[in-house]
Structure formats: structure tokens, C-alpha cells
Amino acid sequence: MISQVPHSMKITSYTGGIVQTNGYLVETPNGNFLIDAPEGVAEWIEGKGVRVDDVLLTHQHYDHVMDAAAMQAAGARLHAFAPYSKELTLEAAARAWGMPISVTPFEVDLLLEVDRPLVLAGLEIAMAHVPGHAADAVTFYLADSAVVFSGDTLFAGSIGRTDLPGGSTEQLLEGISRHLMTLPPETRVLSGHGSATTIGREALGNPYLE
What we know:
Elements: E1 2-5, E2 9-16, E3 21-28, E4 31-35, H1 41-48, E5 54-56, H2 62-65, H3 68-73, E6 77-80, H4 91-96, E7 110-111, E8 118-120, E9 123-129, E10 138-142, E11 147-151, E12 154-155, E13 158-159, H5 169-180, E14 188-191, E15 197-198, H6 199-205
Parallel strand pairs: 4-5, 5-6, 6-7, 11-14
Antiparallel strand pairs: 1-2, 2-3, 3-4, 8-9, 9-10, 10-11, 12-13, 14-15
């Protein structure tokens, strides 16, 4: 998916890994950054010949960070809500489930301060900490472009699963209500899995939202 938005910004989506996880390349005249690092995205970006200076992690579940170390090795800075840990990536839990998941360790370069906007590539990005699916989950909202990167908090017609370690349905729904459903209805929602939607569409038809 390629879409043009204001300020000559281009968003291109990549989907890869065992659970078909979305990553989003944001290109601007002032620089480029990536939302999440699913498996295969580093090779995809290398093939495009694009320089990525920063990677913003919506959360550290394994499927969103499989290529985080590779992106870091290529020169990108990693931004996340919390330092890397095997608890956040679910590696420890996955082994208990019999899933041989292994994430190449990485070091978070910059911890996100969600109480103030982040400025990257000439864009102002508002952030919100929305736990419930993952303890370290963050959304990234570009008001000028009417786009929110929701990670695994909100999907088209669904919400993030809450039966994983640290999950809470009540906490997730409260965070979605406070931080996402208060955005303008035309705001496009680009999530960690599945197709794009809008806040207005989810307000009207998402069965998990009251």
C-alpha cells in the first residue's frame, strides 16, 4: 500500500513474518522513518535503496521487532517506550508455549516521552501510552496528516488480544476510548495487522467498542 498525504509525505506498508505483521515506511523531504520492524523489513528497505534514520516501535512483541537489530545495524535509531527485554518480546512466554521464537537482542536508543510530541523528519508526532495488549504499547498520531499508527491496540473491526502476559481488556478499552476514539472521525488508522480503517468507521461498527 502506498498513499500520499499532506506535506509531501509518503507512507508505504510492508507485511511480513509468521503472523503477517505490518511495518510502515514514512518518507518525507526531510528524512525517513519506520513504524515497527517486522521480519524481512530490513531487506525490503535495503532493496528500495532508502535510508531510514529512526524506527518507532509501537510495542516490543516479537513479531514487531524481529528486524529491529538489523535496522539498528544499518544505522537507524530505535525508539521505544521501555528498554528491550525478553518479557516484552514474549520470548520467555513463547518458549513456555513450545514456540521456538528468538529475537536478535537490540538496545533501545531513545525512550519515548509520551507526554510531549516527538519531532522527526519535520513532522510532529503525538504519542499515547495505551497498555492492555502490551505493557509498553504506544500509538503515534500525525494530526496534520490525519493518520494514527495504532500498533496492536485497534484494528479494522477488532482490538488487540488481551490474553497475553500483562494483558487487560478493561485497560485496553479505556485507553482506546481516551486516546483513539477522541481523534477526528476521518483519521486513518494504520494498525499492526490487517487493513487500514478510520476512527469514524470503528466508532460506528467495531463490535468491541461501546
